[in-house]
């Protein structure tokens, strides 16, 4: 009788679809807000009621990547005509692009901050997931003395808000010279993510039947070979899911990045809000910075979506 | 030529001893089945031979060389697991080729050997598929192919067809036997299913609580069980076991079962063969086919009453009440119409086993 759907079931299905649509819209609304503001002219960014229909422009992005200063006098027609198309967009906004004595365009701090974010997030994710995978494998496959206590100890590092230790960490980092360095943030984020990574990966490792490796061992491989050839491919789903979560945590981390870095190793999150523009806050530039900042996570997650979906139903399906 | 020998093997899991002083010699090309209930140590024994478990005492010898210190990879043994353990991310071809890749053979050689094994197992058309797309029987064939492809010294199989349904199990049983005859490698097969053991084995090794109970051909363990455990574990329906007492009569010996009013007649020779074993400590074992049932009274037959009739198609199993004891007999189907019917029965002395009740050991009486 399963194939027969009653009218009640049909209307329930419709209701579910409507609910999913509403929830999706609630989740997408802020993203839309940021994306649309990133392409708005400055004067339309803060109108009440919000402007929904507008001519999109990319001047916020030009401003995001360049160093600018307020125009005291309007540019001469020659200056305007000589300027490349993107510099004219800045002129239109009442600002000018700062150039060096030799006339080279001065970049804003955004690209290097963005790069720092990538370096720190990717390296710490690789480290946290890599170490987590090995540790989880060890806990999952071997008899470890005091396993339960050790696992609890690992978890206990997440039992306080990390920012509580910000001041002592800052002092320690200053003493050892890790302040404002990539490695400083990488170590910090790896440490935050490691416990999470170990626990998540242990769950995935436990689900991989140990007969797979045993078969490989009997087939003539060493344990290390069996790990790399059999366990890792089988754990791909878990690794992908763990990597996404670790990457998002490291990518979005704000408080420590703000405290521990100021220039060389500063990541995008503390930098973006500092770019309120020369003069009045320029929300379009902030939105453009935020919009670009969202992209790597979105792309990363999109690429791994199949693994993530499998990861969510992991263990629910009999293998 | 591969001989495997276990000498005084001991294995503990914590305080529990799971293998107790196991001695066993397996000849070249022999098909050995380790049979026992779950938890009897048979799988642990197999895993110890494979190198997946360490042992706490004794020696494991392959071709006369101790291997207990060698890693699984260095023992040149193949194993088929109950769960098949096909690598899910590899195609059937890659699964079969996997053990060969560890040997650093050339691509062409690997290809040739994979295809040859696939042909033997009739799975050539499955080579491109992933394990998840295969049926249970085909998964089993691939698992066997992966084990065979390396031409290992010995094949170990841990309940390889336990996960299949009954019909497929029967088919695969025949296929495993056919393969063994064709390929002829020393094989050790673990199962709890005595029918599987009887049909496959050259010799059956019966284990119970980590102790080896009996080693012998299927016929030997069936016809001459070494003790009560083997007697009741091997054979279906299960052997009847009853307390018995033997008394001397003028021309014969009388065996009384379950305090019945009168006893079954046995040749006088029984008395001397029992060698003075006190009557009260005897247990008698008789398989259902050794209980002979008639509708009419006859010499040597005792009157009994049918309690339960189980029709099993080609024959019936009937529970007969003898004194306080129930004896199960095998009759032609429909021979006894139903419970309550009075019939006459005797037990065949040639098929009767006598055990020491205290130790459970067979007294080795053959009439």
TrEMBL record, chain A:
GO terms for biological process: transmembrane transport. Coiled coil: none annotated. It is found in: Cell membrane. Residues 114-304 form the ABC transmembrane type-1 domain. The keyword Ligase does not apply. CDD domains: TM_PBP2. It comes from the Bacteria. Pfam families: BPD_transp_1. InterPro entries: BP-dep_ABC_trans_perm, MetI-like, MetI-like_sf. PANTHER family: ABC TRANSPORTER PERMEASE PROTEIN (PTHR32243:SF52), MALTOSE TRANSPORT SYSTEM PERMEASE-RELATED (PTHR32243). This is Binding-protein-dependent transport systems inner membrane component. It comes from Mesorhizobium metallidurans STM 2683.
From TrEMBL, chain B:
It is found in: Cell inner membrane. SMART domains: AAA (SM00382). Its EC number is 3.6.3.20. One of its GO terms (biological process) is carbohydrate transport. Residues 4-234 form the ABC transporter domain. Keywords: ATP-binding, Cell membrane, Hydrolase, Membrane, Nucleotide-binding, Translocase, Transport. It is a peripheral membrane protein. SUPFAM superfamilies: MOP-like, P-loop containing nucleoside triphosphate hydrolases. The keyword tRNA processing does not apply. Its main location: membrane. GO terms for cellular component: ATP-binding cassette (ABC) transporter complex, substrate-binding subunit-containing. It holds the Pfam family ABC_tran. One of its GO terms (molecular function) is ATP binding. PANTHER family: MALTODEXTRIN IMPORT ATP-BINDING PROTEIN MSMX (PTHR43875), TREHALOSE IMPORT ATP-BINDING PROTEIN SUGC (PTHR43875:SF15). Belongs to the ABC transporter superfamily. This is sn-glycerol-3-phosphate import ATP-binding protein ugpC. It comes from Mesorhizobium metallidurans STM 2683.
């Amino acid at each position: 009788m399963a194939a027969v759907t009653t009218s009640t079931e049909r209307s329930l299905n419709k209701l579910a679809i409507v609910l999913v649509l509403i929830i999706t819209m609630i989740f997408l609304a802020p993203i839309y807000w940021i994306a649309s503001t990133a392409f708005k002219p400055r004067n339309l960014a803060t109108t009440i009621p919000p402007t929904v229909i507008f001519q999109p422009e990319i001047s916020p992005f030009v401003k995001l990547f360049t160093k600018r200063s307020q125009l005291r006098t309007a540019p001469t027609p020659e200056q305007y005509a000589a300027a490349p198309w993107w510099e004219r967009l800045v002129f239109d906004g009442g600002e000018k692009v700062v150039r060096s004595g030799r006339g080279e365009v001065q970049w804003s701090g955004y690209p290097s901050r963005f790069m720092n974010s990538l370096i720190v997030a990717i390296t710490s994710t690789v480290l946290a997931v890599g170490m987590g995978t090995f540790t989880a494998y060890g806990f999952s496959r071997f008899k470890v003395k005091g396993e339960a206590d050790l696992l609890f100890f690992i978890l206990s590092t997440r039992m306080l808000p990390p920012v509580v230790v910000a001041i002592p960490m800052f002092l320690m980092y200053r003493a050892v010279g890790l302040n404002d360095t990539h490695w400083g943030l990488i170590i910090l984020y790896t440490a935050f993510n490691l416990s999470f990574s170990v626990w998540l990966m242990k769950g995935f490792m436990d689900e991989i039947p140990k007969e797979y490796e045993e078969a490989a061992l009997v087939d003539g491989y060493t344990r290390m070979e069996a790990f790399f050839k059999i366990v890792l491919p089988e754990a791909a789903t878990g690794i992908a899911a763990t990597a996404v979560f670790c990457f998002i945590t490291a990518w979005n981390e704000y408080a420590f990045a703000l405290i521990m870095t100021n220039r060389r190793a500063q990541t995008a999150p503390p930098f973006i809000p500092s770019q309120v523009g020369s003069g009045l806050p320029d929300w379009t530039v902030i939105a453009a910075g935020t919009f670009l900042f969202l992209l790597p996570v979105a792309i990363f997650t999109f690429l791994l979506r199949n693994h993530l979906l499998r990861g969510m139903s992991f263990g629910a399906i009999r293998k | 030529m591969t001989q495997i020998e276990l000498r005084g093997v001991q294995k503990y899991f914590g305080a529990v001893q799971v293998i107790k002083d196991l001695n066993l010699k397996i000849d070249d090309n022999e098909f050995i089945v380790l049979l026992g209930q779950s938890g009897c140590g048979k799988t642990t024994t197999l895993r110890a031979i494979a190198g997946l478990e360490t042992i706490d005492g004794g020696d494991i010898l392959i071709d006369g060389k101790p291997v207990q210190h060698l890693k699984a990879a260095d023992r040149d043994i193949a194993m088929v697991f109950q769960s098949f353990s096909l690598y899910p991310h590899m195609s059937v071809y890659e699964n079969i080729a996997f053990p060969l890749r560890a040997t650093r053979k050339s691509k062409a050689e690997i290809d040739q050997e994979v295809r040859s094994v696939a042909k033997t197992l009739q799975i050539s058309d499955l080579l491109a598929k992933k394990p998840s797309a295969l049926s249970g029987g085909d998964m089993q064939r691939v698992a066997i192919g992966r084990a065979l492809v390396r031409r290992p010294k010995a094949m170990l199989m841990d309940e390889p067809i336990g996960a299949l349904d009954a019909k497929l199990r029967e088919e695969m049983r025949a296929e495993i036997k056919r393969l063994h005859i064709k390929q002829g490698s020393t094989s050790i097969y673990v199962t709890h299913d005595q029918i599987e053991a009887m049909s496959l084995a050259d010799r059956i090794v019966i284990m119970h609580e980590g102790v080896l109970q009996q080693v012998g051909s299927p016929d030997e363990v069936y016809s001459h069980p070494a003790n009560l455990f083997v007697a009741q574990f091997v054979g279906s329906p299960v052997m009847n076991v009853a307390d018995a007492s033997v008394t001397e009569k003028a021309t014969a010996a009388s065996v009384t079962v379950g305090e019945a009013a009168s006893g079954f007649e046995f040749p006088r020779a029984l008395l001397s063969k029992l060698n003075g074993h006190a009557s009260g400590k005897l247990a008698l074992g008789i398989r259902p086919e050794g209980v002979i049932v008639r509708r009419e009274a006859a010499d040597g037959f005792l009157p009994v009453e049918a309690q339960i009739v189980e029709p099993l198609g080609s024959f019936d199993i009937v529970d007969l009440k003898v004194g306080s004891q129930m004896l199960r007999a095998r009759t032609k189907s429909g021979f006894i119409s139903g419970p309550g019917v009075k019939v006459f029965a005797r037990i065949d002395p040639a098929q009767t086993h006598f055990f020491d009740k205290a130790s459970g050991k067979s007294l080795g009486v053959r009439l």
